[in-house]
Amino acid sequence: MREYEDSLHGLEGEFMDHFPPPPPRHHPLARERMNIQKSSVCSRAYFVVVMAFFHIYIINIIALLLYVHYNTGSGEQDVLLEKSVPGPMPEHQTPSPNLRPELSFQLPRLEGIRVGHVQRVSLVPDRTHNMRTLSLKPLLFEIPGFLSVEESSVVMQLAHLKGLTHSALVTAPDSQEEQLTQDELFSLLDLNQDGLLQREEILSLAHSTDGSWLSSYNLRKIHTGLETNPSGVLSLQEFKRVSGGVLQYSGAGQGLDGNAKVRQRSTHTRLYLGEGTHHLLKSIRNRVTRVTRLPSSLVDLSEPMEVVRYDQGGHSHAHHDSSPPNPDSSCAHTHLAANHSNQVACRYLTVLLYLNTADGGGETSFPVADNRTYEEEVLGDLSQQYCDKGNLKVKPVAGTALLWYNHLSDGNGWVGELDEFSLHGDCSVTRGLKWTGSVWVNVDPDQQRQERYQRLVSWHPEEQGKRPEHGDLHQDL
Ligand SMILES: O=C(O)CCC(=O)C(=O)O
Ligand SMILES: [Fe+2]
User: Residue ranges of the Fe2OG dioxygenase domain (predicted)?
Assistant: First the structure.
């Protein structure tokens, strides 16, 4: 043992620092010495490691502070300048109708990844939903449980209360067909049914592509009457005075998108999703904002939801919900900011809600979905027999939503060409009834016109002093 200790002494220094031999197990002196050696070696390494962690820790803290600073510093995450996808918005938080007119923005677009891909989306507090990609052309998703079955029933009841009408409502005055009285028209315009016409209700009609109700001329007349009325609203009497004798009907007798023409055996109504309406309808608007990740201002300014009831045998022919961008026409929803009289529907995307589970038939059919060999001629054939030959058919299940883009992207974050693959129709209801609600998000392919329109309607009641002068507004009308 003594020899061993001596030899240890001899080896101390250069060699032993690196390769200390194992100490004899039961010798207290040797253990003590080894502890000293070990602790001196360990303390250096320990110090280096601690310092490394300390530096990483400090760098992390700085990075975190910078992140927090740049993400909350401006406080403008949910305004129009949304180059990136905005974060989820709490259900109870109503998207602000207050627009930032000076800002321009881009349109985030969902990713389909591949057919069958499922992503989680957060629409309401305390639960998430699955969103499944059904096709890439068009980009189409299915979201089961978008509405609960109870909520779906409430929407049907609200539509009942509002009153469902056959599609062709107002026709030329000399036509034999049904014509609306001023009282009926007032009631249709009075979306929140409070007995008064607010500016938003007039404007929401302007967004509505159902041009059969009123011509632009009449719309302007009513709008001017409301703007010049000191109370800023129109009662039924005031409405009659303002519109009396000037009511000219558009004479079209059809919705601008032709839906009235393509739908058979159905009745419909419009439900307003904006301020002052039923909380469920506002919640639907918020869910659409969240699932689409679009700026809330776009969804807020879109046309009212259309609820349709298909009776047995009811169906609709294959159609596109939107129109190809065309410099010679203006969008119905922005026509207040345009000079064209030729109006078309501009619906960037559709959220179709199934409000009940049809007992038989009533599938929504996408005849050319994901059809890589698609040709114009084939489209013509398929549109006649889309139901049998359709590539993709979706069965109506209460509460499920379909979401699809009617337009491609223009490659610069704005609306591009009409997506021909978004052609769709619905098969005949063979048993029972089918109820749907369509929410369309309107975007003008002319970005400047969309922005001009948003500036035009962006004033807020408390900003009375700042709102555009009538002269300015009417120049654009
Ligand atoms: O009811 C459906 O399945 C489709 C309805 C539709 O496409 C429409 O209303 O534009
Ligand atoms: Fe449609």
Answer: 301-443
* Ligand 1 neighbour 356 (Cβ under 6 A): no
CA distance 158 to 151: 11
Q: 321, 304, 338: which is closest to 189 by C-alpha?
A: 304
28 and 133 share one domain: no
- CATH number of the domain that residue 383 is part of: 2.60.120.620
Closest CA to 319 of 211, 433, 423: 423
Bridge-based pairing state of the strands 263-271 and 305-319: antiparallel
pLDDT band at 247; cut points 50, 70, 90? low
Please tell me which residue, 183 or 322, carries the higher pLDDT value: 322
**ipTM at complex level:** 0.96
Contact 20, 34 (CB under 8 A): yes
Q: Find the Cα–Cα–Cα–Cα dihedral 468, 471, 472, 477, rounded to 10°.
A: 110
Please identify which residue in the block is written with the tokens 């990483």: 56
Q: Which residues surround ligand 2, an ion (CB under 5 A)?
A: 321
Is the same domain home to 9 and 145?
no
In a domain, residue 138? The reply is yes
Total tally of structural domains belonging to the chain: 2
**Residue 406 in contact with ligand 1 by CB distance below 6 A:** no
Mean pLDDT of 138-146: 98
**What digits encode the pLDDT tens for the residues 86-97?**
333 444 444 444
Segments forming the whole domain that contains residue 304 = 118-167+255-476
In short, whether 309's Cβ falls inside 6 Å of ligand 1 is no
